[in-house]
Amino acid sequence: MATQEEGRFTLKALRRDGPPKKFTLELSLGGLVTLGVAVIIGLVWVFIFGIIVGRGYRPEQAVPEIAKIMPDSGRAPIAAEPPKVLQPEDLNFHEALRRDPPVLPSETAPMERAPERQAARDAPIAIAPVPQTQAQDAPAVKAPQSQWVYQAASFKDKAQAESLLRKIMAQGVATSLEKAPVNGVTWYRVLVTIKGTEQDNEAALAELSKIGLPKPLLRKRNAL
């Protein structure tokens, strides 16, 4: 049983065979605060220590004092590798490079392959002959031939028709005159006849265009 009176704590312990025994503990306000802070720090330290041990961290390697209070886990300490000391012969590689400079493959490879390239250039080039039988046996393909008949113009006056006929014939194009009665009236038609390929037909039409007949009327076309 505990009682408090003005910063004084009194503890009473009951005994079966005698009067109760009293224990008195006096703490001031500052002492009470100090005790509380010490308890909190102790709890925090225990919590952090538990996390470190639970994660497998070995704090005894960094802090030797902790190794004295921790049990031995049976692991052998990791031996540090002794530093390697350079030997005198390891320091002479500069002189070895000066005596025996390394040979780069790019400097000798072109010289070794030069005879092979020269031999390839000097070798004659074989040209396969073209078989003449194929060229001789292949028949020449002829362009299709046709005959076109155009009506260049139509006149009531025969003299005008004959004048145009002579003008067209002067261009080297075959021309004829056709007499046709229409509704009791006689018409004289100037007809142009072209024989040959499509290229011949286009060339003759170009000649007609030069004398003012760019689009004559096509009357008929027959294949020859």
TrEMBL record:
<dbReference type="InterPro" id="IPR036680">
    <property type="entry name" value="SPOR-like_sf"/>
</dbReference>
<protein>
    <submittedName>
        <fullName>Cell division protein</fullName>
    </submittedName>
</protein>
<dbReference type="Pfam" id="PF05036">
    <property type="entry name" value="SPOR"/>
</dbReference>
<dbReference type="InterPro" id="IPR007730">
    <property type="entry name" value="SPOR-like_dom"/>
</dbReference>
<keyword id="KW-1133">Transmembrane helix</keyword>
<keyword id="KW-0131">Cell cycle</keyword>
<keyword id="KW-0812">Transmembrane</keyword>
<keyword id="KW-0132">Cell division</keyword>
<feature type="transmembrane region" description="Helical">
    <location>
        <begin position="29"/>
        <end position="53"/>
    </location>
</feature>
<dbReference type="GO" id="GO:0051301">
    <property type="term" value="P:cell division"/>
</dbReference>
<feature type="domain" description="SPOR">
    <location>
        <begin position="142"/>
        <end position="221"/>
    </location>
</feature>
<keyword id="KW-0472">Membrane</keyword>
<dbReference type="GO" id="GO:0042834">
    <property type="term" value="F:peptidoglycan binding"/>
</dbReference>
